[in-house]
Structure to design on (548 residues):
């Protein structure tokens, strides 16, 4: 998922904070005041309880959480969201877990002793072809950042044939000193994400890819990589003609340096080369020999979908999303092996349930239908929302927008709101009006290098040309010192993100969840009643030409 808690803030088109202004309040403002902190606390407490065992995908705790969400929506009087009358949309996933004890991964150079990589400690690796056992022995080709972007006129591959090779690449994006605005400048685009690197390598016929991890380039430490990849990973079955990597791996910075040294290459020097437009792939002379033995099983998991039918245009829709899965039970830390995921994303689920209650108690439903989608397997690579977008109950062109809540501030009253992605589409005015109604500011992103827009379920809607907004809270809090928000953000990122420490705390005041529930409700109710179908701005990477 995205890094939760004090999530980053989307820039306005002017690049400056958008202050609250005087103006007519939203007609939905008074109803938003009915948000119940007691309801939010009760939902969050249950979803983050040890009983749910970290809500693992395909695990008992995850299934329990799904049934809880469905039952709560049924109690509100909502309808099942699937055309077959079900609250659950089955998502056919395959779980693959690399058996570290029976697998091996080593790098060698002619005439040198092989460098063995300890799986979990030095590298993590998954066979994305979904085989139970497979081996490779392939040449290593360094491809810089592994990016081919016609939009930026950047090509790390040049004319190199990478078929059958293992590609060594950096995560993140190149930032040439003489081109500060390329790839969005400091802001990370999808080309910098690990998922893009693996997809591009497979598309070009490589058999494997090794991504060099650094805390700075990834935005998180090795413990996050280990906790996320050193366990069962979920995949959809490959589509017709789809290519997959036999070895999709991360390698620690220390081991990458050691491996390159075997070939007389320096990681720092290659970093400099990779930042230039004239970069060309570098044959390393190294070979990767790997055997990955995998435990493979079908996963029983589902998206949870509820619906409030629209009053006049029920065939159109607004969608709220909040993924309910987390990492389940994993490696023990300080006597605790349950990854409860209170903030990530119990907070988002609790908030969307309370938003659903507000809609269910309106005197009249909005014009468009409102769907409440709780995707599965977000932590596995956005799998649940990927499946929903491929098999929606409403055709994508009829979905006005997706509003995603993934990791909400649970302590302190936010003075700022993050509507990540709103500046890309025609909803800018609606978002700013909602901010004025609630007296909050919209501010620029203080951590654009993290690329949060590409790290949660709304991204799959955006890829389907559905305007998608990810809501979070900023770093400035009412009555708190100016540095308080950033300090809390860093503490969460270092000590609790994707770790067992992300637990429910009864001392949280939940003011952030209250404010975000109100903002998301006012925004969504306005969109659901809107006369026009929102769209991405012309020229945006997600625009659907001629479709809206």
């Amino acid at each position: 998922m995205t890094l939760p808690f004090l999530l980053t803030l989307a820039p306005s088109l002017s690049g400056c904070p958008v202050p609250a202004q005087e103006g007519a309040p939203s007609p939905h403002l008074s109803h938003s005041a009915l948000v119940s902190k007691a309801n939010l606390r009760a939902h969050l407490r249950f979803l983050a309880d040890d009983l749910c065992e970290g809500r693992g995908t395909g695990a008992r705790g995850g299934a329990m959480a799904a049934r809880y969400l469905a039952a709560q929506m049924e109690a509100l009087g909502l309808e099942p969201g699937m055309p077959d009358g079900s609250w659950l949309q089955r998502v056919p996933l395959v779980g693959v877990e690399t058996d570290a004890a029976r697998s091996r991964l080593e790098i060698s150079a002619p005439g040198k002793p092989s460098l063995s990589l300890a799986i979990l400690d030095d590298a993590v690796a998954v066979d994305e072809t979904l085989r139970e056992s497979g081996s490779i022995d392939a040449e290593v080709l360094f491809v810089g950042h592994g990016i081919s972007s016609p939009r930026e006129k950047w090509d790390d591959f040049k004319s190199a044939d990478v078929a059958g090779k293992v590609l060594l690449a950096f995560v993140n994006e190149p930032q040439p000193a003489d081109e500060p605005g390329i790839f969005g400048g400091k802001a990370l685009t999808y080309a910098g994400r690990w998922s893009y690197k693996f997809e591009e390598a497979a598309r070009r016929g490589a058999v494997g890819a090794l991504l060099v991890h650094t805390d700075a380039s990834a935005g998180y430490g090795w413990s996050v990589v280990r906790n996320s990849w050193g366990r069962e990973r979920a995949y959809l079955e490959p589509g017709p003609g789809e290519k997959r990597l036999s070895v999709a791996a991360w390698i620690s910075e220390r081991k990458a340096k050691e491996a390159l040294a075997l070939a007389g290459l320096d990681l720092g020097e290659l970093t400099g080369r990779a930042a230039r437009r004239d970069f060309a792939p570098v044959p390393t002379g190294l070979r990767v020999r790997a055997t990955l033995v995998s435990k493979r099983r079908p996963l029983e998991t589902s998206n949870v979908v509820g619906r409030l039918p629209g009053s006049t245009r029920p065939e159109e829709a607004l969608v709220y999303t909040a993924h309910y899965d987390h990492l389940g039970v994993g490696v023990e830390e300080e006597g605790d092996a349950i990854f409860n995921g209170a903030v990530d994303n119990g907070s988002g689920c609790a908030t969307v349930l309370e938003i659903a209650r507000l809609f269910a108690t309106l005197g009249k439903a909005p014009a468009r239908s409102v769907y409440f989608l709780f995707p599965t397997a977000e932590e596995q690579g956005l799998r649940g929302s990927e499946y929903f977008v491929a098999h929606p109950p409403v055709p994508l062109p009829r979905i006005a927008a997706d509003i995603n809540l993934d990791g909400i501030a649970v302590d302190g009253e936010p003075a700022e709101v993050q509507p990540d992605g709103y500046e890309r589409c025609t909803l800018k005015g609606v978002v700013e009006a909602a901010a004025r109604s609630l007296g909050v500011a919209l501010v620029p992103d203080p951590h654009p290098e993290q690329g949060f827009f590409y790290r949660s379920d709304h991204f799959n809607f955006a890829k389907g040309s559905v305007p998608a907004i990810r809501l979070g809270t900023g770093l400035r809090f009412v009555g708190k010192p100016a540095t308080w928000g950033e300090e809390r953000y860093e503490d969460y990122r270092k000590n609790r993100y994707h770790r067992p420490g992300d637990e429910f705390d009864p001392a949280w005041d939940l003011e952030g969840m209250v404010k975000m529930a109100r903002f998301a409700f006012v925004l969504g109710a306005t969109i659901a009643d809107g006369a026009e179908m929102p769209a991405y701005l012309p020229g945006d990477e997600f625009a659907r030409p001629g479709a809206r």
Observations:
- Confidence is low (pLDDT under 50) at residues 4-23.
